[in-house]
Amino acid sequence: MNRPRPHTTISPTRPEHKLKNATSAPLITGQINPDLAAYLKKNLRSSNENENITTNEPVEPSASTDAEDNILVTIRVRPESVKEKELTGRRGPLVRIVDRNVITFDPSDYETPNERRALGVRRGKDLKFAFDRIFDETCTQMEVYQNTSKKLLDGVLDGYNATVFAYGATGAGKTYTMMGADSSGPGLLPLTVIDLFNKINENNNKQYKVIVSFLEVYNETIRDLLVDPPLDLNAEDAVLADKKNKRNRDKEQSLEIREDKLKGVIVSGLSSHVCNNADEVLALIKRGSSHRTQYGTAANSESSRSHAVFQIMVEQCERTANVMMDVKMGKLSLIDLAGSERASVTMNRGARLVEGANINKSLLALANCINALGKNKGKGYVPYRNSKLTRLLKDSLGGNCRTVMIANISPNSLCYEDSYNTLKYANRAKDIKTTIKKNV
Ligand code: ADP
Ligand code: MG
Q1: What is the largest CA-CA distance in the chain?
Q2: What is the DSSP letter of 439?
Q3: Rounded to an integer, what distance in angstroms lies between the CA atom of residue 210 and that of residue 408?
Q4: Which of 36, 327, 351, 387 suits a disulfide with 22, CB 3.0-4.6 Å?
């Protein structure tokens, strides 16, 4: 297959626009709210064309170089919640953002020596971590999008696979980042989908086919989120069915993963949906998310142990003088990972991560793969086979694939261990620095 080296364009823009009129609109609907559509069109297009968006920030360097890093590791610090402020607000945030690349964890002046003694823990680590980008609590969803998954779109349209992870403890902001919230507008999934179709529609010389699937990995079981429950149950029956569901959860048949020489990793029996426009994809995201939420509200701890994997396959057919030419297939995986707090006990033990019965196997296996990719510069053995999630991502993580990690943290000291572990995890992920090879 003839695959040119991908290129990405980065727009050094900082949209200061607030989402007007669309805040009370449903976040994801079958039909995009017209105000929201206009906002997105304006912002997404301006970012492509570098229109007159003013910025106070230094211009980011272009990433279109031969040795471009294939993993981008970013941190998103959410605002402190009202409850967190009530409990510890006097002390202020536990992390300080030095600049857009450097963050200090547990600054030495965070607590007075007396406070530290009272807490009985050794703190004041004053650790500085450097990342590709740090998003503070004032960053808009659009700003996060433009500096993360937007950078992957050109590559995906050119036949490369790419993955975006939202990592972090439960409550750190993963779902907010990936899906969005009513108050702040759409997150990365809807923004990516809308921008993808904008790009496809702009490109008249090529024909694209967009195919979508949405699954959940829970307890090493793969479930299709786009298959509706078999029965139209009334509320009472639904509660009973949900209880039964929970009992049967572990016995449930998982969809199987297999590898195809041409198509890469495939999940047998997973529904795939050809979509002709962004609205169709947004409706599927809404449908899949509602299936996930049902499980989540039944038992919150369960939802924090599941990974939601949304995949968009983009098939490109080039037509020259009425002859269909080369077909390229790029796959973009957008993943709302399970809560990382379950892995932290083991993460503390160092590089060798041991799987425990109550600890999320996939999340630990992902850490092991990331570590192996970092150590071997993508050349040695990578233990993809150790979990369903990493098997799923075998063709989308490492090698020629681009990866963006958004590690979410709370700035509040109640989340001390979680934030510390997340920063350490993300810090390790930075080590994957294989050079993108020309694939001709
Ligand atoms: P997770 O999916 O990691 O468990 P959520 O995305 O559900 O966490 O976020 C937890 C809470 O924090 C939610 O109420 C969410 O709206 C809020 N939140 C998260 N990130 C942000 C942010 N960047 N700005 C404002 N609120 C946020
Ligand atoms: Mg969540």
Answers
A1: 78
A2: B
A3: 29
A4: 36
CB 340 less than 6 A from any atom of ligand 1: no
- Residue 298's Cβ-count burial label (10 Å; 0-12, 13-18, 19+) is middle
| CB neighbour list of residue 189: distance below 8 Å, 6 or more residues apart | 178, 179, 180, 285, 310, 334
Q: What's the rounded Cα separation, in Å, for the pair 255 and 281?
A: 22
DSSP sequence for 376-428: HTTSS---GGGSHHHHHTTTTSSTT-EEEEEEEE--SGGGHHHHHHHHHHHHH
What residues contact 331, with CB distance under 8 A and at least 6 apart? 156, 161, 162, 264, 311, 312, 313, 314, 395, 396
The enclosing H or E element of 146 equals: helix 141-146
Residue 426 CA to ligand 2 center (angstroms) comes to 18
Q: How far is the CA of 275 from the CAs of 134, 183, 315, in angstroms?
A: 34, 28, 12
Supply the ipTM of this predicted assembly. 0.99
CA 412 / ligand 1 centre spacing (Å): 13
Atom 12 in ligand 1: residue holding the nearest Cα = 173
172 marked as part of a ligand binding site: yes
Q: Could you give the 3-state DSSP secondary structure of residue 186?
A: strand
C-alpha separations of 362 from 50, 230, 266, 329 in Å: 40, 28, 18, 26
Dihedral sign computed on CA atoms, order 78, 83, 84, 86: positive
Regions of the chain short of the pLDDT cut 70: 1-69, 89-91, 109-124, 229-252, 293-303, 319-326, 342-360, 376-378, 431-440
Q: How far is the C-alpha of 369 from the C-alpha of 355, rounded, in Å?
A: 14
pLDDT in tens, 15-53: 323 333 333 333 443 445 555 666 566 666 544 433 332
What single string gives the DSSP state of each residue in 54-106? --SSPPPPP--STT--SEEEEEEEPPPPHHHHHHHGGG--SEEE-SSSEEEES
Tokens read off for 59: 């211009």
Q: Report the chain's terminal Cα–Cα distance, integer Å.
A: 7
Residues 6+ positions from 394 with CB-CB distance below 8 Å? 259, 264, 265, 384
What's the pLDDT tens digit per position in 53-94?
A: 233 333 333 333 333 568 899 999 999 998 888 887 666 788
Take residue 29 and report the two structure tokens written for it: 């609907």
Nearest CA to ligand 1 atom 9: 173
Is the minimum distance from the CB of 168 to ligand 1 under 6 angstroms?
yes
